[in-house]
UniProtKB/TrEMBL annotation:
<keyword id="KW-1133">Transmembrane helix</keyword>
<feature type="transmembrane region" description="Helical">
    <location>
        <begin position="160"/>
        <end position="180"/>
    </location>
</feature>
<feature type="transmembrane region" description="Helical">
    <location>
        <begin position="229"/>
        <end position="251"/>
    </location>
</feature>
<keyword id="KW-1003">Cell membrane</keyword>
<dbReference type="Pfam" id="PF07690">
    <property type="entry name" value="MFS_1"/>
</dbReference>
<feature type="transmembrane region" description="Helical">
    <location>
        <begin position="70"/>
        <end position="93"/>
    </location>
</feature>
<dbReference type="InterPro" id="IPR020846">
    <property type="entry name" value="MFS_dom"/>
</dbReference>
<dbReference type="InterPro" id="IPR050189">
    <property type="entry name" value="MFS_Efflux_Transporters"/>
</dbReference>
<feature type="domain" description="Major facilitator superfamily (MFS) profile">
    <location>
        <begin position="4"/>
        <end position="379"/>
    </location>
</feature>
<feature type="transmembrane region" description="Helical">
    <location>
        <begin position="38"/>
        <end position="58"/>
    </location>
</feature>
<feature type="transmembrane region" description="Helical">
    <location>
        <begin position="201"/>
        <end position="223"/>
    </location>
</feature>
<feature type="transmembrane region" description="Helical">
    <location>
        <begin position="128"/>
        <end position="148"/>
    </location>
</feature>
<feature type="transmembrane region" description="Helical">
    <location>
        <begin position="263"/>
        <end position="283"/>
    </location>
</feature>
<feature type="transmembrane region" description="Helical">
    <location>
        <begin position="99"/>
        <end position="121"/>
    </location>
</feature>
<protein>
    <submittedName>
        <fullName>MFS transporter</fullName>
    </submittedName>
</protein>
<feature type="transmembrane region" description="Helical">
    <location>
        <begin position="321"/>
        <end position="346"/>
    </location>
</feature>
<feature type="transmembrane region" description="Helical">
    <location>
        <begin position="289"/>
        <end position="309"/>
    </location>
</feature>
Length: 400
């Protein structure tokens, strides 16, 4: 395994930790800064919105620079944002720090995916991307619970000091372990934007938004589902989420290996399994043992989609993949928001706590449909129209 992948995974771990750890600290933040819980919740949605906006902007800004240079600059922004959070004396400054830290998120994962794919053999590219995203899955299993516990015992600022230290560690690792790379040949914003003229790039982004949206339609409401329907005590939610996180780790590795063998067949199969697991989850959530097993399978199927989804966009944006890769991270976050919103609508509509599972199954099935359409277009031969070329240039007179 190239050591560059380890450095990228450390960066992903730091970013994943700061993204989700705030959820467990909202009561402490709200009480300390004298704001309501819903107002403190804007620290979550503000981060997500900044990811969507920052992904293309930060990638475009570094389009002509060597990718290692861009990664180092992005991690510097991450450190600055979390340092601002740790020093924040009021809510406004804390929100500003969250927005600054989030600016690097999409561009780091987007450009990092390109770098990870470049440091390995062509038949191991998806596995390399999965290795980088292992840092994100580890953040859910270790970083978020430990960061939450630290903040609850020593104050929420201590968590951001710890994340800042992680960012510095990642910065050092990237500087030392990622090989120097020249600026992309014929780089520039115009070249990166040109790939968005390809319909297959848009189909790949739509597959990501819909397919992964199915994951968050269910996951957003998994805590009340486990307590109100399956009958677990509230204190059990922590270890249930750890179990789900372990499933994410397994699915990430599995998805990378499958995608390296056969990309589109693997992606379609994983989305089909995800839709089936979510549909079944609406039934198994009514029993403890069955709910635990299904939750673990849900984690495996949910994150097995990530390497092939990211690899698909990069493949279809061949030649200038950085901006499209970053845009796909934005598509993941749009899917998160879409799934959570639709799942909430189902609950508000009186359909019960398990209804988000069916919403998630429908979204995953929709993503499968788009993926199948994209695969069909891959097999459709392009018709090339023969255009006669005149033997010599002729002056063309336009009738008046």
């Amino acid at each position: 395994m190239p050591l560059a992948l380890l450095a990228l995974a450390v960066g992903a771990f730091a970013i994943g930790t700061t993204e989700f750890v705030i959820v467990g600290l909202l009561p402490q933040v709200a009480g300390d800064l004298s704001v309501s819980i819903p107002t403190a919740g804007l620290l979550v949605s503000g981060y997500a919105l900044s990811v969507v906006v920052g992904a293309p902007l930060m990638t475009a800004a570094g389009a002509r620079l060597p990718r290692k240079t861009v990664l180092l600059a992005l991690m510097g922004v991450f450190v600055a944002g979390n340092l601002l959070c740790a020093l924040a004396g009021g809510y406004g400054l804390l929100l500003a720090g969250r927005v600054v830290a989030a600016l690097c998120h999409g561009a780091f994962f987007g450009i990092g995916s390109v770098v990870a794919a470049d440091v390995v053999a062509p038949d191991r590219r998806a596995g390399a991307i999965a290795m980088m995203f292992t840092g994100l899955t580890a953040a859910n299993v270790l970083g978020v619970p430990l960061g939450t516990a630290l903040g609850q015992h020593l104050g929420w600022r201590s968590t951001f000091w710890a994340v800042t230290a992680l960012g510095v560690l990642a910065l050092v690792a990237l500087a030392a372990l990622v090989p120097a790379q020249p600026a992309p040949a014929d780089g520039g914003l115009r070249r990166e934007l040109a790939v968005f003229r390809r319909p297959q790039v848009w189909l790949a982004l739509a597959t990501t938004m819909l397919g992964f949206g199915g994951v968050f339609a269910s996951f957003t409401y998994v805590a009340p589902m486990m307590t109100e329907v399956a009958g677990f005590a509230p204190g059990s939610v922590t270890w249930l989420l750890v179990l789900f996180g372990c499933g994410l780790c397994v699915g990430n590795v599995l998805g990378g290996r499958m995608a390296d063998r056969r990309l589109m067949p693997s992606l379609c199969a994983i989305l089909a399994v995800l839709a089936a697991v979510l549909a079944v989850f609406s039934l198994t959530a009514h029993g403890k043992a069955a709910a635990v097993v299904t939750l673990a399978l849900f984690g495996v199927a949910g994150f097995a989609t990530v390497p092939p989804l990211q690899m698909r966009v990069m493949t279809k944006a061949e030649g200038a993949p950085a901006l499209a890769s970053a845009a796909n991270i934005g598509a993941f976050n749009l899917g998160n928001a879409l799934g959570a919103w639709l799942g909430g609508l189902a609950i508000d509509g009186g359909l019960g706590w398990t209804a988000p599972n069916l919403v998630g199954a429908a979204l995953a099935a929709a993503g499968l449909g788009v993926a199948l359409l994209s695969a069909l277009l891959d097999r459709t031969p392009r018709r090339v129209r023969s255009v006669p070329i005149p033997e010599s240039p002729r002056k063309i007179e336009v009738p008046r």
